[in-house]
Amino acid sequence: DDTLYLLETQPTRLGIFQEMIKKTSMYSHPLIHHLMDPEAHKEIRENSDDKQVVTEIMARCFTPTLITTTSWEGFHFVGHEIRITEAMDCYGAVVWPSALVLCYFLETNAKQYNMIDKNVIEIGAGTGLVSIVASLLGAHVTATDLPELLGNLQYNISRNTKMKSKHLPQVKELSWGVALDKNFPRSSNNFDYILAADVVYAHPFLEELLVTFDHLCKETTIIIWVMKFRLEKENKFVDRFKELFDLEEISSFPSLDIKLYKAMKKNRRSTISSQLLL
Ligand SMILES: C[S@@+](CC[C@H](N)C(=O)[O-])C[C@H]1O[C@@H](n2cnc3c(N)ncnc32)[C@H](O)[C@@H]1O
Predict the structure, then answer these.
(1) Which GO terms of the molecular function aspect are on file (predicted)?
(2) The pTM is what?
């Protein structure tokens, strides 16, 4: 039995306990900041535009009532309790707020963006939460990321979709811009949706990311992309993105600096050449 503590329910003890776990590196990640930091709640309260929906999105996340040796975080989507294990030594191996925004969008817009039997690929899937939600909504999902993320990604996906999803999700390596023709030949790419949450930040592969979006995208493919704005670099990426794709802002969450976009290939009769990297 790996149980260390049983969380008690009296408010004062709970407060002390929250302070304690907030201080441990294991729990100091972006969602815990929003769940436990009174300032973050204040920030949400003070923004009247997105206050209600952001609170609703963040409420989908919960921390375990039993503290165990393996850290996991819980989420409620599509009528399921989803348990995500995070590998804290890796940047992508925590759940980022953009992922929650995308999951919430998929769940609450399931009629308009119907996932049932659709071919869906997620890039930069991290812990796999978005892919799990798409799979629980009935999609054929391929969750992708860098090789070092795949073990944890596969674990989370199997644990949360086995005997629950209509189609068994796949986990595949996809390093942006690398061996795309070999691993994802254009002729066999047939994705209805490309999902991406928080894939644009100060990393050196932004051009490769753009090439990857282009490579995976057919004329009919819809990209649903949630973007966290941190630096000027991100605005520039949006401008570059708009050269290749018709971009539509679907929702904005100012208190999180997050926007949700829908995009489709521009000039949908001509394929953008893979000379983008030249
Ligand atoms: C900020 S995390 C977001 C993870 C997840 N989508 C979420 O929102 O919780 C960025 C993700 O992009 C992945 N990533 C970064 N550079 C990459 C690259 N060159 N090729 C493929 N994936 C990459 C990381 O491994 C990580 O999973």
Answers:
(1) methyltransferase activity
(2) 0.83
